[in-house]
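Folds vary. Our protein:
___
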Amino acid sequence: MVNEEATAHMIGSAMSGIGRSLTHRLLELAEQRLGPPPVPYCYMVLGSMARDEQLIVTDQDNALVLDNRFDPRIHDEYFLQLASFVSDGLAACGYSYCKGGIMASNAKWRQPLRVWRSYFTQWIEQPNPETLLNSSIFFDLSSAYGEAGLVESLKDLIAQKASSNPLFLAALARNALNRTPPLGFS
């Protein structure tokens, strides 16, 4: 692509498309193996894949948004197996496991919509270093497979709550200003 004079955006978008396609296929295979999901869900990708800026060397950043009918005692084993199948498959394809555990195979990031809404609300309404880090990771989100409306409702919540919370916006801006952009390869 570089030899064909593709821009960085074109390359990032193509790499993200490949990652999404692999994720989509792995989820199809997981459902074939495990059977249909017990409640609707959306597998969401985060960070560079969600922004269509993925590069060749990347890790996994993903999560599951489950329908509010999700009951962990009844349904979580299915979704743990699904998430583990996908994470292991992505790892086999060269997408390393997230060192920070930001993967749907982590129970904290495999939650019903109501829990995600409470996470996002708390992160916006009570900004601190940890919640700002979570915001910087999770607010770049996109549906990769499943009921996209679950993720769209989270995007709506972010837009509504963040735009009406100047304290959060100021903390997010201050956090961004504390990062030094890379200006070389060393």
Summary: The beta strands are 41-46, 62-66, 110-112, 141-146. The chain has a mean pLDDT of 89. The first helix runs from residue 8 to 34. The CA atoms of residues 31 and 170 lie 43 Å apart.
